[in-house]
Amino acid sequence: MNQLVEINGMTCGGCVKSVEKALKTIEGVEAVNVTLSPPQANIVTDHTINNQRLKDVLSKAGGYSLAGDSEGDTAPKKSGGSCCG
């Protein structure tokens, strides 16, 4: 099963790697492909992952959020607007 989700807060390749690593920790995830442009993740799973689980994992990974999620962290990352500093 494929899930395509749009992600807010990614600004660089480091962000992409952080999001990818975090999503791979979710039980049932078989593969993840995260892109910066467009900012999204294609998640291959053995079941549907609910949005709350995705929100929790993305938030813990560095303040990322699902697009359209008004509760997400919209604050800029470290200096320069990048997670890399």
From TrEMBL:
The keyword Cytoplasm does not apply. Residues 65-85 are annotated as: Disordered. Residues 1-66 form the HMA domain. It holds the Pfam family HMA. One of its GO terms (molecular function) is metal ion binding. Keywords: Metal-binding. It comes from the Bacteria. This is Heavy-metal-associated domain-containing protein. It comes from Kaistella carnis. The lineage of its organism: Bacteria, Pseudomonadati, Bacteroidota, Flavobacteriia, Flavobacteriales.
